[in-house]
Automatic annotation (TrEMBL):
PANTHER family: PLANT BASIC SECRETORY PROTEIN (BSP) FAMILY PROTEIN (PTHR33321:SF12), PTHR33321. It comes from the Eukaryota. It comes from Riccia sorocarpa. This is Uncharacterized protein. Pfam families: BSP (PF04450).
Length: 214
């Protein structure tokens, strides 16, 4: 399912917190050039994973290291990363772990820029769970560590719980499941029956089977 990379994206990165401990670490151990290159690499993985049309085009993504409480978030064509959060990702001087952890979270944030999202994020907990689950699944699929798999919860919890469920469907039911799901999310408003339409089994039954697999 290869496809030609039709669209180029320009990435910019800026340290807006140079006087904080995290900002100083960014300058000393990471740097703008590495960050821009890393973001291109992450984008390549994401658009290869989302190879089925419709595809999204992004001309520009601006990345900012800033001084705020929290970890990282995406907004329009911007990615914001907390300097304090970055500083806590690895022991002082362990720049390889620092870069690895940062890159892992960028799969989640960048997925939000390329994933299809016809649905009501604020009002539909199922849609919101899938949006966040796919973003964390991308991190898992790329080989970066996410929190361990645990039994229980709901398929629409989002993040780790949903990510492992999606991965289980893809490995046991149908290949390229997440790609197929993302395609549908660009053609039609979110519907829980997307699971049934793609796999032949409804989502509650899939979740029960998945829970029984632990
Ligand atoms: Zn997210």
């Amino acid at each position: 399912m290869e496809r030609v990379m039709a669209f180029d994206t320009t990435f910019t990165a800026e340290n807006r917190a140079p006087n904080t401990p995290g900002g100083q670490r960014f300058d000393n151990e990471i740097g703008v050039a590495w960050t821009v290159n890393m973001l291109q690499e992450v984008k390549s993985f994401i658009i290869q994973t989302f190879s089925l049309s419709p595809e999204k085009e992004r001309d520009l993504i601006s990345w900012y290291l800033e001084d705020f409480d929290g970890a990282a978030y995406s907004s329009n064509n911007e990615i914001h990363v907390s300097a304090g959060w970055l500083n806590g990702l690895a022991q002082p001087g362990d720049s390889s772990t620092l870069k690895f952890e940062l890159q892992g979270v960028m799969y989640h944030e960048m997925t939000h820029n390329w994933q299809n999202n016809l649905g009501d994020y604020g009002g539909d907990q199922y849609f919101r769970g899938i949006i966040e689950g796919i973003a964390t699944w991308m991190e898992l699929a790329a080989g970066f560590g996410i929190d361990p798999k645990v039994k229980g919860g709901n398929w629409y919890d989002g993040y780790t719980n949903t990510a492992y469920f999606l991965d289980w469907i893809q490995s046991t039911k149908i290949d390229s499941f997440v790609n197929r799901l993302n395609q549908r999310m660009g053609l039609l408003q979110w519907n829980n029956d997307f699971f049934l339409q793609i796999t032949g089994t409804d989502v509650d039954t899939l979740w029960s089977e998945y829970q029984a697999s632990f």
